[in-house]
Amino acid sequence: xxxxxxxxxxxxxxxxxxxxxxRAREVRVLDEMKQPLGVMPLTDALRLAQNRGxxxxxxxxxxxxxxxxxxxxxxxxxxxxxxxxESESRQPANQMKELQLTANIxxxxxxxxxxxxxxxxxxxxxxxxxxxxxxxxxAHKEFGFQVVNRFVQEAAAYGKADAPPKMAGDRDMHVIIxxxxxxxxxxxxxxxxxxxxxxxxxxxxxxxxxxxxxGPAPETT
Length: 221
What we know:
Strands 5, 6, 7, 8 and 9 form a five-stranded mixed beta sheet that branches. Strands 2-1-4-3 form a four-stranded mixed beta sheet. Helix content is 29%, strand content 22%. It folds into two domains: 70 residues, Ubiquitin-like (UB roll) (Roll); 89 residues, Translation Initiation Factor IF3 (2-Layer Sandwich), CATH 3.30.110. By secondary structure, the chain is an alpha+beta fold. A hairpin with a 3-residue loop joins strand 8 and strand 9.
């Protein structure tokens, strides 16, 4: 037995075979714009790509027959890289977000955390809601349960708790809310735009010349 553990080496097989590396005898060919050109012998497909000054790239090796595309290899690599980045950008960066509550949370903070949870659920992320009991709060855990249960109820139009809230140790309570399917989920309401400010009041009209000439009213004795 070897003293040193064997290390797996990455395969040298290219991700996409091209030109002379393609092994199939017959291939289904697409042109540069992905339009089908039909099934033909590999030699004919290679000749067609060569006549166009392009490469023949195998894009579906497991199909019967394998599918190849006629395209310049550098352009093909760019398209694949762009497609991969777009696919990754559509996936949430984190599949789960965490929000922290307290047993004596005030109404404003409660609504703020709830709006954050709704935003995460609308982006197809799970939300872990945690509540930590501090000091004497541990003697009255029912208040913490009330807060968490209310949170789950008010988020029910966007997500559903995987299980009832439960304790993790003596101080922490948590619950996980999973997003509802899109067709069952309430639509998020956009915040209303602020109303335009009222127009400034019109300045007082200047006194008429006649009134100005009249001078101050005489005092009465």
